[in-house]
Amino acid sequence: MEEFVLEFANTIVSKNVFLSYVFFFISQSLQILFPPYPGDMILIVEGYLTELADLNILIVLINAILATTLSSILLFYIGEKGEHKILESKIIHYLFDTKIVEKLRGLFARHGALVIIISKLIPGIFSITVISAGIFKVKKVRAYSAIFAITAIHHSILIILGKLLGENWTIIFRRLNVYNRYIIVAGILLLIGYVLLLVIKKKLLK
Q1: Is 196 a member of any domain?
Q2: Residue 198 lies in a domain
Q3: Residue 202 belongs to a domain
């Protein structure tokens, strides 16, 4: 998918600047609504193409941040209105890892909208975290602020790096893949450690 999307992006940018912004907007929306879509890669490419095709980087940034923010708010709204019924949908089960929803309940109770910010740093859980925030009735102002803040920071970093590195943008993408693997392994180890601590604590209390 990555190669196809990259080639498609290059073709559009070389032919029509306006369509480039439309494509970038759709891409960032798909990253939220259809997580298998390689949205982070497109952000890096957007930065690279601002240099290659002389696109306005400020417009590119605003466009990307707006697309992700609006798509995330839509997911929050779906979670808020559908509540737990939304999790029974086959489409939601296919697109998102709904097993973590109950685990998120406790995190939202303790940390509120901060969970949304942290989830952006962990591969593959941001979208379902936003849905869960709606389900568990996190205050809208805080949720929307958290979504916008972490999106602005995340997108700005990737787009600017893509612009600065130019044709070497693939370095970032490769390192992101390595980072994602490390995060997943670290998450598994932390989970195992947490379970072991619970078991030990339970035995000590007997």
Answers
A1: no
A2: no
A3: no
Residues in the chain: 206
Determine the straight-line distance between the first and last CA of the chain, rounded to whole angstroms.
Answer: 54
Give the pLDDT confidence of 112-169 residue by residue, as tens digits.
888 898 888 777 788 888 988 998 889 999 999 999 999 999 899 888 888 877 666 5
Query: Has residue 190 been placed in a domain?
Result: no
128: which DSSP letter?
A: H
Cα–Cα distance, 52 to 47 (Å, whole number) = 9
For the cut 80, the answer to whether the pLDDT of residue 3 exceeds it is no
Contact call for residues 94 and 149 (beta carbons, < 8 A): no
Give the count of beta carbons closer than 10 Å to the beta carbon of residue 109.
11
pTM over 0.85? The answer is no
DSSP string, 9-41: HHHHHHH-HHHHHHHHHHHHHHHHHSTTS-HHH
Which domain, by its residues, includes 167?
A: 2-180
Structural domain count, the chain: 1
Count other Cβ atoms within 10 Å, centred on residue 3.
8
Degrees, nearest 5: CA angle 86-90-91: 80
Give the chain's mean pLDDT.
Answer: 76
Token readout for 205 is 């209390």
